[in-house]
Design brief:
This protein is mostly helical. It has one domain. The chain is 61% helix and 0% strand. It has four helices and no strands. α1 (11-31) runs antiparallel to α4. The chain is elongated. The N and C termini lie close together (12 Å).
């Protein structure tokens, strides 16, 4: 039996809009540090942007889970 819903869920468009809003805010926050970073050594700047470029995805696991299942947490249900 397929677990794909017969009709598209409203959660996916809402989730995508939430994702875009989150990314816009995250990018504004990260870019607000540009002036302070300009005075630091290049390695520190490179490291900051490397971490910031990966860290944005960490808080999104609950959003992606909700978009696909309708739950915010993984309860560990095994079928």
């Amino acid at each position: 039996m397929s677990s794909i819903p017969p009709e598209p869920s409203w959660r996916k468009p809402v989730g995508m809009l939430s994702l875009l809003a989150y990314l816009a805010v995250y990018a504004l926050i990260v870019s607000s540090f540009a002036d302070e970073l300009a005075t630091l050594p290049k390695f520190v700047v490179w490291l900051f942007y490397l971490v910031a470029g990966v860290a944005w995805v960490l808080p999104l696991k609950p959003l992606f889970l909700w978009m696909n299942t309708g739950r915010w947490t993984d309860r560990g249900d095994v079928e």
